[in-house]
Design brief:
This protein is of the alpha/beta class. The protein is built from eight helices and seven strands; from the N terminus they run H-E-H-E-H-H-E-E-E-H-H-H-E-E-H.
């Protein structure tokens, strides 16, 4: 009776809970540690037991032979390995931050060492100067969902052996090795199969950041095409105006002012097309990475 009372008073929980940067992406080096610390602060405010911040987690992993968690580059398989290294019931809250221009893409995922499905997941995109406001509400929901998934049910391990014990005075049924067995084809519900995603609806986690970057890539690609057409049109109009004069030199049917306007149009539009194309390529690469992300 004493053991039961103690277990009810102090239920087991998954710990430690390690909030750690799991990527090092160009342009995000300065802001990523601030975001990781903000995430850890929210967990601390929710009084999560066994909390480790990025520095403490990195130090612990180094003692276990893993040099730098940022080398995971946000991949779930690597983050899961970190959780296993930290303990059988450990949870790693992966903080992955990417940056294109003045836009940040933030991916949070809580991975438990003893579960295949993530405890919770969050994708946020925000401007470089407004990431704190953009994360405020979603991160509270994320942290509370992770906290709810930290509980371990002690009944699950104690119930199984008890069910196998036969009642006193009752002979156990004879089971033949070759006897046919009934196979249940209907899948049984399991709490381990439930994946919590924040924010979003049941099913596959939303690719918020991926769609944001994909939309930006399409926008800049359209701008590059429009600028390229404008530059090409200006050059074509100038070329069509060229004529050969009586002395063999080349002239134009356009006035000096008209020719200068076409030259200015071509000179402005072409660099704009090149710059827009480069930005579109960068956004496309980042969108692809988020779509393929575990």
């Amino acid at each position: 009776m004493l053991q039961l009372t103690l277990s009810q008073a102090a239920p087991q929980t998954r710990q430690p809970v390690a909030v750690v940067l799991t990527s090092k992406r160009p342009g995000a080096e300065a802001v990523a540690p601030k975001i990781a610390q903000r995430v850890a602060d929210y967990f601390k405010r929710e009084q999560v037991i066994g909390l480790l911040d990025h520095a403490a987690t990195t130090k612990e992993l180094k003692t276990l032979g893993f040099s730098d968690p940022r080398s995971c580059q946000g991949t779930r398989a690597c983050v899961s390995k970190l959780a296993v290294l930290l303990g059988a019931n450990a949870v790693v809250v992966s903080v992955d931050v990417g940056k294109v221009g003045k836009t940040l893409a933030i991916h949070l995922e809580a991975v438990a060492a003893d579960r295949e499905a993530s405890l919770a997941m969050l994708d946020v995109s925000a401007s470089l100067t407004e990431w704190s406001d953009a994360m405020s509400a979603p991160i509270v929901v994320f942290v509370r969902d992770v906290k709810a998934g930290l509980s371990l049910d002690p009944k699950s391990s104690a119930a199984a052996p008890a069910a196998q014990q036969p009642s006193p005075g009752v002979e156990p049924p004879l089971v033949l090795a070759d006897a046919p067995r009934k196979v249940e084809l209907a899948p049984q519900p399991s709490s381990a199969d439930v994946q919590v995603v924040v924010p979003g609806e049941p099913g596959k986690p939303p690719k918020v950041a991926a769609w944001v970057f994909a939309g930006g890539a399409a926008l800049f690609a359209g701008g590059a095409v429009a600028a390229g057409v404008m530059s090409g049109d200006a050059k074509r109009r100038y070329d069509d105006s060229l004529v050969t004069l009586a002395d063999g030199s080349q002239g134009s049917t356009l006035t000096q002012q008209q020719a200068q306007q076409l030259a200015d149009q071509a000179n402005v539009a072409m660099p704009l097309a090149i710059a827009s194309g480069a930005v579109s390529a960068g956004l496309t690469a980042l969108a692809t990475w988020f779509f393929l992300k575990d």
